[in-house]
Design goal:
heterodimer; A: 111 residues; mainly beta; 0% helix; B: 118 residues; four-stranded antiparallel β-sheet
């Protein structure tokens, strides 16, 4: 079955600490992978995407993600988070001309 | 440039009533998608239009849901009659090219329409 799994529903972290949000995908989806972010009262916006090439992808706001084919993972990382990074993050994979989303991870940055 | 707009932002209706959600995509975007998120779960695909044609409606839950895209511009999603389990946030997204196009692959989302069925 086509699926994207985000095991952590919520990740609390202190400001300026590093963070990793985990994402695993099933091998039945394509390896076009995305991370979207939803800030409160806003729509989803693209953080970064992996289509091909280098397995380390850099996105906006200092986020990056690493594609790992052997582990079918696409974890999102940031070395030092800010209060403004508090939001919900969604991992997604392209499959049959649509995106398959995970259930989201709520990142809560505390001062 | 205006983004994807959705109306209403929030709708509260009784079970058995009808609700119509509207989405205005970014001008020039041929691809329009509807998604739904129920109470903290994953964002689930409902259907995909290319211009006015339904490319994929495999995610539509049942025949109480009807989506249209008049003239390949705005789209409506009607739920009739609404049931309790239809509650959730309905997202619309548009893109110039489909998600498997290596040059694009980005969907632009609206803020969503929150539907509450009592």
């Amino acid at each position: 079955a086509q699926s994207v799994t985000q095991l952590d529903s919520q990740v609390p972290v202190f400001e300026e600490a590093p963070v990793e949000l985990r994402c695993n995908y099933s091998s039945s989806v394509s390896v076009y992978l995305f991370w979207y972010v939803q800030y409160p009262n806003q729509g989803l916006q693209l953080l970064l995407k992996y289509l091909s090439g280098s397995t380390l992808v850099k996105g906006i706001n200092g986020f990056e993600a690493e594609f790992n084919k052997s582990q079918t993972s696409f974890h999102l990382r940031k070395p030092s988070v800010h209060i403004s990074d508090t939001a919900e993050y969604f991992c997604a994979a392209a499959s049959s001309y649509k995106l398959i989303f995970g259930s989201g991870t709520r990142l809560l940055v505390r001062p | 440039e205006a983004g994807v707009t959705q109306f209403p932002s929030h709708s509260v209706i009784e079970k058995g009533q009808t609700v119509t959600l509207r989405c205005d995509p970014i001008s020039g975007h041929d691809n329009l998608y509807w998604y739904r998120r129920v109470m903290g779960k994953e964002i689930k695909f409902l259907l995909h239009f290319v211009k006015e044609s339904k490319q994929d409606e495999s995610g539509m839950p049942n025949n109480r849901f009807l989506a249209e895209r008049t003239g390949g511009t705005y789209s409506t999603l009607k739920v009739q009659p609404a049931e309790l389990e239809d509650s959730g946030v309905y997202f619309c997204a548009s893109s110039q090219m489909d998600v498997l196009d290596r040059a694009a692959g980005e969907l632009f989302f609206g803020e969503g329409s929150r539907l509450t069925v009592l």
